[in-house]
Amino acid sequence: MTLGLTLTANMAASFKELPRRIVQIRNRSARFGPRNRLGNSTFRTEMSACRCCSGAAAGRSTNFGFESVPEGEKAERVYKVFESVAQKYDVMNDAMSLGIHRLWKDSLLRLMNPQPGLKLLDTAGGTGDISFRFLEYTRSVREGQLRHRARANQTPSWQEIAAGYGSEGEEPAESRAVVCDINKEMLKVGKERAETAGITTGLSWVVGDAEELPFNDDQFDVYTIAFGIRNVTHIEQALQEALRVLKPGGRFMCLEFSKVSNPLLSRLYDAYSFQMIPVLGEVIAGDWKSYQYLVESIRRFPDQETLKEMIEEAGFFRVQYVNLTGGVVAIHSGFKL
């Protein structure tokens, strides 16, 4: 009931934005053509066909860190980066951020505040950090609801008896999470972590591309992508896919490195990033180049306002962002009507 009221309120508030957003969507349609609303198999076939019209695509370039590369080459190179760092990925995250990445991910879950019964798509989910937190959070909420119900049943009021009439035996639904990542090595590490932690239910692992998700339309309540969207070749396309697979009323959430506004903090952050992180990569993971790319990719990523506009242009409503650690990272959020 709480979830339904929350989604209804979110959707009602979103209608206030309709006139402005209709103009944005029309402008987007003029640039990109009409949005595809076909079934998933047809959608993916047409997307693949577009990619295969390589006469034009082959001539286009994109950034790989500070380097300019052909679009068709970036995905392969990014794959090799994460294939190389997969085994040391979590250790390096702790070393590079001094453990603060754990607080950033906790903040994402607090802002999400997921309720039992929701289905999460954790895109570019790698080693499962977000999904693990999601399942732990919703199970904790579910257990709290069951405890509250047990206490209420001991001395129920007549209102509680009336409200519970006909619903005996019903329990809050369990949540589910799907970790989707293009890199098999990252998923392998994630599965090993899940087994070690004893997480065996409500979690599945799927190999998939954020730009061509292997799911039907309107499947998920929440879509997250944490420290992954800057690595895709076509951000706009990944955002369109996020919109497609979310249910109406579903929520998009992106946790990503962003732009530091404080000049002093920005200089310190740059010095640490370029002088220390590649060194840590070499010492801990034996891989200087991969971590040099990761630092460079952060600097090439759009700032907070630009990403907000991109999410709105993809078709999301009530798009907002929250800066963490002075803008070192930001959480962007939006809803699908």
Bin the strand percentage: 15-25%
In DSSP terms (H or I, runs of 4 or more residues), the helix count works out at 14
The rounded distance between the terminal residues' Cα atoms is 19 Å
Shape: globular
Helix/strand-derived class? alpha/beta
Summarize model confidence as the mean pLDDT.
81
Secondary-structure element order, N to C: HHHHEEHHHEHHEHEEHEHHHEE
Helix coverage percent of residues? 55-70%
Rg over CA atoms: 21 Å
Query: Low-confidence spans: pLDDT under 50, at least 5 residues?
Result: 1-15, 25-57
Number of strands: 9
Largest sheet: 7 strands, mixed
Cross-sheet strand order for the largest sheet: 5-4-3-6-7-9-8
In short, what is this structure?
The chain is of the alpha/beta class. The protein has helices at residues 2-14, 18-32, 40-52, 54-57, 71-85, 89-97, 100-112, 129-154, 158-164, 184-197, 235-245, 263-285, 288-300, 304-313, and strands at 61-64, 67-70, 119-123, 176-181, 203-207, 220-226, 246-257, 317-324, 329-335.
